């Protein structure tokens, strides 16, 4: 009943008792990190628009577009649900993606939010930049084109792959476990798939149906 990537959605995930709440970060034209799934919002390009304009945009529930700082501060009001921060590749290219990565890590450290935040990204270089800047950080990779062995070699915390990737590579779950990598699978909403993944003892499941998954777990 609330928009994705809103503060209301985060608070609902906390109320439900979710292990984590995943959200997506882009950067405005004047370098402010904001929270939104797509590179555009209501037809406006985030990367090509200044923050002063972006922060007047309202979500479907009347909330203003969240800044990363506001999202982190809201998440830090509790200690049960991790903040799973996805660094989105920039539509402006690699240099902008790395600039966003540096902004994000600097803000997490400025707010002393390290204990709340885990990082994920489809951009392998962004993931490696997080680990360079913050060797303590827990970082997982999303794209699905690296083997567990490759991720372990580069000191990743885990893999975070679409369920189709793991269906095509069924041995990767055991390989990941042997390499001490955590396993997250996204985005799984059907009961049969949720039950199958629980039987395989994956660490985390990303779902748009947390109520259903939590009922199965119970």
Total number of strands? 10
What separation lies between the terminal Cα atoms? 23 Å
How are the strands of the biggest sheet laid out side by side?
2-1-5-6-7-8-9-10
The biggest beta sheet is recorded as: 8 strands, mixed
What order do the helices and strands follow? HEEEEHHEHEHEHEHHEHEH
- Helix percent reads 25-40%
Tally the helices. 10
As a whole number of angstroms, the C-alpha radius of gyration is 17 Å
Coarse structural class: alpha/beta
- Approximately what portion of the residues adopt beta-strand conformation? 15-25%
Uncertain segments:
none
Question: How is the quaternary structure best described?
Answer: single chain
Q: What value does the average pLDDT take?
A: 98
Based on Cα principal axes, name the global outline. Answer: globular
């Amino acid at each position: 009943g609330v928009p994705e990537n809103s503060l209301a959605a985060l608070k609902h995930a906390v109320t439900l008792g979710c292990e984590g709440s995943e959200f997506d970060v882009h950067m405005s034209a004047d370098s402010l990190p904001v929270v939104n799934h797509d590179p555009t919002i209501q037809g406006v390009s985030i990367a090509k628009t200044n923050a002063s304009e972006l922060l007047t945009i309202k979500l479907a529930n009347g909330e203003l577009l969240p800044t990363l700082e506001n999202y982190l501060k809201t998440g830090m009001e509790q200690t049960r649900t991790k903040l799973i921060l996805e660094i989105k590749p920039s539509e402006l290219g690699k240099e902008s993606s790395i600039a966003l990565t540096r902004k994000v890590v600097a803000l997490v450290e400025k707010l002393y939010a390290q204990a709340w935040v885990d990082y994920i990204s489809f951009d392998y270089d962004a993931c490696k930049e997080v680990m360079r800047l913050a060797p303590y950080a827990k970082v997982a990779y999303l794209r699905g084109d690296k083997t567990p062995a490759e991720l372990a070699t580069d000191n990743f915390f885990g893999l975070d792959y679409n369920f189709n990737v793991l269906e095509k590579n069924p041995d990767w779950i055991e390989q990941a476990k042997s390499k001490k990598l955590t396993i997250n699978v996204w985005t799984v909403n059907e009961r049969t798939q949720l039950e199958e993944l629980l039987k395989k003892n994956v660490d985390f499941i990303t779902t748009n149906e947390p109520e259903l998954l939590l009922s199965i777990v119970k």
